From TrEMBL:
Transmembrane segments: none
Name by which UniProt lists this protein: Cysteine synthase family protein
Cofactor: pyridoxal 5'-phosphate
Coiled coil feature spans: none
InterPro entries for this protein: Cys_Synth/Cystath_Beta-Synth, TrpB-like_PALP, TrpB-like_PALP_sf
Pfam families: PALP (PF00291)
Signal peptide region: none
Domain Tryptophan synthase beta chain-like PALP: 12-310
Organism encoding this protein: Algibacter agarivorans
Keywords per UniProt: Pyridoxal phosphate
Length: 344
């Protein structure tokens, strides 16, 4: 890491330059070489530090934001935490409209970081006045001098990753990367990173990970919004019930879908096999490479980079709680060993 052995003025200087770590055991049955970009090494413990800092600094440069102003956002938690962190250092008020699907730990963390949090129902349509999109829009119109980050529809979300995550991966792999596999929520991470990597080498395959219950994969294949694809699912931060303009569908070659249950078990397996305590979507992206690998999609010399978006501590009451796993019916006979907490 570039950071080591330095002294910093504040935590914002630690955003980005996250390590790329080889996956050794969990992918041992697959052909290919697999590396995880571990975004929990950011000071706010997720990839969202990159976009929060970048978008806020762009607004400052344009003179839109001055200290004392309010920053508003809709967020599943991570972006909110990052915006709250940046707001503390730079002297802004932070107001967040959050989905009720977010874990209680995440909501408590946001409050701890000084944010004002509005919890909005998860299973209403995006245009419902109770949805977190509509609540954020209303607050933006009500609070004078406020800025709405709007990560799902903000091109700067893509630019942040184009300027940081992409170049870092290219440099860290010394240009050897052959595949990028990443979760798509707003789509900013995969789109910006992919755009940069494809400019260096158009042959790099870009694979997005989507949830069952999300419209993203079908939209990529048909360019049509199919409401029938939408139903409730549990993974936070992955997939969507609308089409974000922060997703550049043209730079993504294909999408793979993963289930809540498989992703949960794979997240737990990453901890037990690699010693990495990462979030639910890190389980999802690893589940995707396991599925692709089993289909024989990787070759011996392939250099596959996956993005682990956040830290496991944010999911203690969910995927890392045996009680929660049981309640979801994820500890069935197939996974009896896990139910008894026997080693994988
Ligand atoms: N994983 C988690 C935990 C997230 O919070 C997000 C962001 N919603 C993602 C993955 C997906 O990142 P992006 O929004 O850049 O597509």
């Amino acid at each position: 890491m570039k950071h080591r052995n330095k002294v910093f003025d504040n935590v914002l200087d630690l955003v980005g330059n996250t390590p790329l770590v080889r996956l050794n055991k969990i992918t041992s049955k697959l052909k290919g070489n697999f590396y995880a970009k571990v975004e929990s090494f950011n000071p706010g413990h997720s990839s969202k530090d990159r976009i929060a800092l970048y978008i806020i600094e762009q607004a400052e440069k344009k003179g839109i934001l001055t200290p004392g102003d309010t920053i508003i956002e809709t967020t599943s938690g991570n972006t909110g935490f990052s915006i709250a962190m940046v707001s503390i250092i730079k002297g802004y008020d932070c107001v967040l409209a959050v989905s009720s699907k977010s874990s209680p730990d995440k909501i408590d963390m946001l409050k701890t970081m000084g944010a004002k949090v509005y919890v909005c129902p998860a299973h209403v349509s995006a245009d419902d006045p109770r949805s977190y999109y509509e609540v954020a829009k209303r607050l933006h119109s009500e609070i004078k001098g406020s800025v709405y980050i709007n990560q799902y529809f903000n091109q700067l979300n893509i630019d942040a990753h184009y300027k940081s995550t992409g170049p870092e991966i290219w440099e860290q792999t010394e240009g050897k990367v052959t595949h990028l596999v990443a979760c798509s929520g707003t789509g900013g991470t995969i789109s910006g990173t992919a755009k940069y990597l494809k400019e260096q080498n158009p042959d790099i395959k870009i694979i997005g990970v989507d949830a069952f219950g999300s419209v993203i994969k079908k939209y990529h294949e048909t360019r049509e919004f199919d409401e029938k694809e939408i139903y409730p699912y549990r993974i936070e931060g992955l997939g969507k019930n609308l089409i974000p303009t922060a997703t550049d569908f043209d730079v993504i070659d294909e999408f793979v879908k993963v289930t809540d249950e498989d992703s949960a078990h794979t997240a737990r397996l990453i901890a037990k096999s690699e010693g990495m305590f990462v979030g639910y979507t890190s389980g999802a992206v690893t589940q995707a490479i396991l599925q692709l690998g089993e289909e024989g999609r990787f070759k011996k010399d392939d250099y596959v980079v996956v993005i682990f978006p956040d830290h496991g501590a944010r999911y203690m009451s969910k995927v890392y709680s045996d009680k929660w796993m049981n309640e979801q019916g994820f500890f069935d006979s197939k996974n009896e060993a896990a139910a008894q907490n026997i080693q994988y």
